[in-house]
Design a protein that fits this description.
Blueprint lengths: L1 E2 L1 E4 L14 H4 L6 H15 L4 E4 L1 H6 L1 H9 L3 E4 L12 H19 L5 E2 L12 H8 L4 E2 L21 E5 L2 E5 L5 E3 L2 E3 L4 H6 L2 H9 L4 E2 L19 H8 L5 H11 L5 H7 L7 E3 L4
Parallel strand pairs: 1-11, 2-3, 3-4, 5-6, 6-8, 7-12
Antiparallel strand pairs: 7-8, 9-10
Length: 285
């Protein structure tokens, strides 16, 4: 099962960087979102491919036509938070406010219930498992925030499973679609989204795809924009990760879609036998 998803944010929505941290800083950057979204729309139309779009509430308010077009084309609009902040930097009340605002901003445009969430930077870890409770409180049915290994933004290594599963909390069950991992030489790596997708040569990407029963992609409009400006203040490593492969990534994705079957989250949800799905008990430590 290969799932195609896009995180709808602008080119300057880069985490862990002071010059792009908040909405105040974003006002100083020129948007490239609309032109980059057209590349994605055109690719999906050309290939007849379905996908799920995780949009910021900020995008819904500032570029409502983008959200309306995603919906009009028949794609699911999920939430990627409101202001693209790391979830563990919030306390529960602030997180709830951010989530509620994002959901309302999207639902006001589509008239449809938002059912799915992904945290910016996959920023759910041991210290903020309460995120899952608040998702269920707001009627979210599916989450895509778990990175089941160590990573820069924490990760949730205790999850211990890189396949769709139920998360069990005291409040009930939540469907979880974690990021997939591939283990090589004892190291768990990711290949299916963002900078990883751009960095990995296509031949190696095929190698990983051919050996993976489940793949969860997460791509961004900026991943297909070789003309975007260089953000000041990034380290050499961050600059390389953020800008490498931008010129070839759209063709790479087109090739991948043509070679492998992909589905949206709605389709994936229907394909899974949830009665037999694994349940992960996640209790606060």
């Amino acid at each position: 099962m290969n799932i195609l998803t896009f995180d709808i944010e602008d080119w300057f929505h880069i985490l862990d960087n002071e010059s792009t941290k908040t909405e105040k800083e974003w006002k100083s950057f020129e948007s490239r979102l609309e032109s980059n979204m057209e590349k994605i729309f055109n690719l999906l139309e050309e290939t007849g491919q379905d996908a799920t779009f995780f949009a910021l509430g900020w995008v819904a308010r500032n570029y409502p036509d983008i959200i309306k077009k995603i919906d009009a084309l028949g794609y699911e609009v999920a939430t990627h938070s409101d202001l693209h902040q790391l979830a563990y930097e919030y306390d529960p009340k602030a997180f709830q406010n951010d989530l509620e605002r994002s959901v309302k901003s999207i639902e006001d445009l589509t008239g449809k219930k938002v059912k799915t969430y992904r945290a910016p930077g996959f920023s759910v870890k041991e210290e903020n498992l309460w995120v899952f409770d608040l998702l269920m409180d707001l009627g979210i049915e599916r989450d895509c925030s778990v990175f089941p290994a160590k990573r820069a933004h924490g990760g949730l290594e205790r999850f211990g499973y890189a396949q769709p599963a139920y998360i069990r909390r005291e409040k009930g069950l939540l469907k979880e679609f974690p990021i997939n991992l591939y283990e090589i030489f004892g190291k768990k790596i990711i290949f299916s989204g963002g900078g990883y997708f751009r960095l990995i040569p296509y031949g190696l990407l095929r190698y990983f795809m051919n050996r993976s029963e489940y793949v969860m992609t997460y791509l961004h409009p900026r991943d297909f924009d070789p003309d975007q400006p260089m953000i000041e203040g990034l380290s050499m490593v961050r600059r390389f990760k953020s800008y490498y492969g931008l010129g070839s990534s759209l063709l790479k994705l087109k090739r991948l879609i043509e070679e492998y079957p992909f589905v949206s989250l709605n389709e994936a949800d229907e394909m899974i036998d949830w009665k037999s799905a694994k349940t992960i008990q996640l209790e606060d430590l």
